[in-house]
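Input:
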Amino acid sequence: MAQVVIRDLNKKFDEVHAVKNVNLHIKDKEFMVFVGPSGCGKTTTLRMVAGLESITSGEVLINDTVVNELPPMDRDIAMVFQNYALYPHMSVYDNMAFGLKMRKFERAEIAKRVQEAADILDIGQLLKRKPRQLSGGQRQRVALGRAIVRHPQVFLFDEPLSNLDAKLRVQMRVELKKLHNRLGTTAIYVTHDQVEAMTLGDRVVVMKDGVVQQVGAPLELYNQPANRFVAGFIGSPAMNFATVSLAEHDGAVWVEGPDFRIRPPQSSAGRLRGHAGRQVVLGIRPEDLRVANGSDPADLGFDAVVEVTEQLGSEILLDVKAGPASMVASVEPTVPAKVGDRLRLALNPDRLHFFDTQTEAAI
Amino acid sequence: MIEGAPWRRWVFFYIPLTLFVFVLLFPFYWMLITTFRPDGELYQPWNSPRYQPFWTSNPTLEHIKYLFNETLFADWLWNTMFIAAISTVISLFCGVLAGYALSRLNFPFAGSLGTGIFVTYLVPQTLLFIPLAEIIRNFKLGDTPWSLILTYPTFLIPFCTWLMMGYFKAVPRELEECARIDGASRVQAMLYIIIPVAIPGILSAGIFAFTLSWNEFIYALVFLSSPGEKTVPVGVTSELIRGDVFFWGPLMAGALLGSIPVAMVYSFFVEHYVSGLTGSVKG
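Output:
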């Protein structure tokens, strides 16, 4: 039973303000993912929760207790590091037992817990080996095992899958999810990989330049990004952006691009009316673009020239040029598009995103 | 390896290597052969008809016997060993702690302090022995092993600290952080995790410190005067060179026997020692 509350958290390294006024409430049993590009302050925030980095101002509470001044050992947390940080001179068993030995557990209890964790992670046969005799995936399991034997209140993960190859990463991601479902321990997970964030997190915190951009469930971030940064960061391939102007004709709002003109549906027209006559940024995800057929209304499409096609098997990514704007469209694998083809693309009117050009906030 | 024609391999690899090995090992060979040559052969003029400087047909142990029976060589050997061992232990202890502190604790001026320590190592002993002699005299330590045990760390601690600083920097920080999250205090993390991981580095620092104090000459020459208190390098040169007469046989025997303990220490730890120098720690 543990919740983590972060209040007005700040971290300054000399002149660099790495974490700015972060406020978060991580609920009991929640799997919270911090995601963002390198240098966004996600790892620093995690390290402040762990007690490995001093807090410049603000508070971290674990289970309603302010832990700012507590050393890491007294916070009842466990952390998994990117490079595993296994103790190279100890066997797998001793690696996993170290935390329990330090906390003066009985020998029998240590053996029981290590065995339990080893069974969960399927590393029972590796207990006598040294870390250097293990593969990357096995090391990762041992690092996880070392964290779970302690039955801590909170798990902290610092990019734990980054050193694994792509296939193993997907496999371990699933296992992590299963492990969390099984143990139900509150977890904070830092990654720069938005796919990991979307698949693992109950909620995701998107950070940039030390500032929290948006906190929400994965689909919330995907469907209702709070600003242009979140919209571009979440989703792969990234959202397309084009600067357009909004005009009001005959009571309807029109979006006018350099080479196209579309009429957004009534649902979003209300929000846009206030911005009529101004320039805004239009965002549309590649999967919300498709090749138009005869039945599509004329004012929801535009012409584009195919520049590159990327065959992914399940879909084709078309890099197209629509006027001066470059866009990516994800279309059915049956579309016979070739480089240089001129196509008419239709967009899904319910899935248009608009952002203010100055503040970049969603409209 | 050198690629290309076989002659290239000879010219650029085997021949230079042979020359290098020859230059390196010849003094040891000379030491060895002189130790076992009888005086009759040693003092033959070079133009005598039976002059054969590189080999002996009548090997003898007379020089070694002379060394142990007529001089205090056994005492010198013991003194050297005792002084080198204790000063190495003291220096390693201080060097490991200081190296850890300078590389891991982010206190103000840690960097400049590290450089400062290294600079003290660079002060030549030929300058330093003058004030040190005064200190030794004031503490009435002259002519005792403690005069050396306490002065050798003046150059050994900076040396060990510098070497350990580099080694500790190569140990991933996460190891220690993980230990601290696992429930270890900073001291426990150092004792149970960092020091065991740094054993190769500590061993190389130890071997170097031991060799440096074993071979040290000037302090030993200045601070010790009674024959029974001397160390091997000083004892051999001061007792076996009388005026302008060199007792080559016992001299070389002393040098040979004096280098055996160091050679043994090296060969014992060579594996650790090499990995300590090439030093990579993998988590």
